[in-house]
Design a protein that fits this description.
The protein is 39% helix and 24% strand. The protein is an alpha+beta fold. The strands form three sheets. An eight-stranded mixed sheet has the order 3-12-9-8-4-5-7-13, with helices on both faces. Strands 6-11-10 form a three-stranded antiparallel sheet, with helices on one face. Strands 1-2 form a two-stranded antiparallel sheet. A hairpin with an 8-residue loop joins β1 and β2. The protein is elongated and about 80 Å long. It starts with a helix and ends in a 5-residue tail after the last strand.
């Protein structure tokens, strides 16, 4: 007897909704593969100890969700073959991919965003559109918005950005980054806290890490993880009035890989482990942010 069957037996006869949930999970996790025939109504009725009428109601829910297709006369349904992932779901640069994902996240009644990044510049830019839509009432007003962000501490000796030439003053490069971190951090707090004027329960918290994050991570509503590597390059930056060669990473140009909790076992595990990693850093190494000046 499977864990699912044991749970069903412990509760007594399941409803058609509970049966649909079990079958949906089997499809999502690949136990029932795309294109495969579903078990017959008779088989499902025997497995769950229910009437065939309850089975038909459960299958109707799966059909409405697009998870199964109609079988021929007397034949069981088949698991739907998912359409090819479109450009919106394939890896793209952070600047292009994060905005639409945040718009979708803000359509939930309770919005939760966790992020690890070098500064909040890209996050600020991506939040502009969902915040505009909320203020303009183009999407339903969420009941709550919870945002937690981890950035490097101001006194950390960063791996990047850093001077690419020995003659360059490292303090000037660090100070340049810190001004950007603080400016974007304050902007994030102000833009999100403005949602409170709409009656939304808003909580925005920035905390710091004692190291340079080699990757950036965005967790949306506990159901999606967006992950990107920071690729370090040598480039020229105007610092204190001087063109300066530095090693740095442009977060907006990083390739963002999406993982969804409903996208299969690997995606589900990645989302769960990413959330665990974030929470572990937040609850141990993270410290209160200090804004200079």
């Amino acid at each position: 007897m499977t864990h699912e069957q044991q749970a069903v037996a412990a509760r007594g006869k399941p409803s058609y909704g509970e049966v649909a949930d079990v079958l949906t999970d089997r499809i999502r996790t690949g136990l029932l593969r795309a294109g495969e025939r579903m078990p017959t109504q008779e088989q499902l009725a025997a497995e769950f100890g229910i009437e065939r009428r309850t089975v038909r109601q459960a299958l109707e829910l799966l059909r409405d969700a697009g998870l199964i297709t109609e079988g021929g006369k007397g034949a069981p349904a088949r698991v739907s073959v998912p359409p090819p992932r479109d450009a919106e779901e394939t890896p793209r640069t952070t600047a292009a991919a994060l905005g639409p994902r945040l718009v979708e996240a803000f359509e939930a009644p309770n919005v939760r965003v966790d992020a690890i990044c070098l500064t909040t510049e890209t996050l600020n830019q991506a939040l502009a559109e969902p915040l505009r839509r909320v203020q303009a009432r183009e999407i339903a007003t969420p009941e709550s918005v919870r945002v937690r962000v981890l950035v490097p501490a101001h006194d950390v000796k960063l791996a990047f950005p850093r001077p690419a030439e020995g003659a360059v003053d490292d303090d000037k490069v660090h100070r340049h980054w810190q001004v950007r971190r603080d400016g974007h951090g304050r902007g994030l707090l102000l833009s999100l806290e403005a949602l409170a004027t709409r009656g939304i329960d808003v909580e925005v918290t920035l905390r710091t890490l004692p190291f340079t994050p080699p990757v950036k991570l965005y967790l949306l509503n506990g159901a999606e993880a967006l992950f990107a590597y920071y690729n370090v390059h040598e480039r020229t930056e105007r610092i204190a009035g001087t063109d300066t060669r530095i090693f740095d990473a442009l977060g907006s140009d990083s390739t963002l890989f999406p993982f969804e909790s409903g996208g299969g076992r690997r995606d589900q595990a990645f989302v769960a482990q990413s959330q665990t990693w974030f929470d572990s850093l937040w609850g141990t190494l993270a410290a209160d942010v200090v804004f200079d000046g």
